[in-house]
Amino acid sequence: MIETLRKKGAGNPLKCVQCGSCTSACPVTLIREDFNPRRIVGSIARFNRLPDQDPWLCSTCSLCSERCPQAVNPFSIIMVLRSVLYENGGEAPLSILKMVEQVRETGLAFPLTPESREKRRLLCLPEAGLSEQGLSEVRRILREAGFK
Ligand code: SF4
Ligand code: SF4
Known about the structure:
Elements: H1 2-7, H2 21-25, H3 27-31, H4 37-47, H5 63-67, H6 74-87, H7 94-106, H8 114-122, H9 132-144
């Protein structure tokens, strides 16, 4: 697992000193006792294998990486755990798969509502969206990332 993290350019769990700053910042740990970035990093450093916590619970806020005094980057480690699970045949949650479909169709992670269009208009922002070329590039990236 440590070698996979290194190859994918994620943080290095071996630098972790188990201070717990990541966990004290994590909004998910506040509501889910079974999710703890310090333990995720610690168990990889100790056992060099996939931890038994669900990386899909992470909200991707990145606070853990901002607070880490050792620049371990737990957030990047958790993102790699997701990709390893997915590549090994695990299922991503329905909410993520729906978002991927949305990105594939429109290039945007969230659908534009009439309200958001109006806000953009009031702020003199251009219509949100991608050109055909941009959209085909996004679709190519999704294919290469392994999303069917
Ligand atoms: S903040 Fe960094 S060093 Fe501290 S426990 Fe979390 S990953 Fe380890
Ligand atoms: S990125 Fe994930 S693990 Fe890190 S603080 Fe945010 S929710 Fe917690």
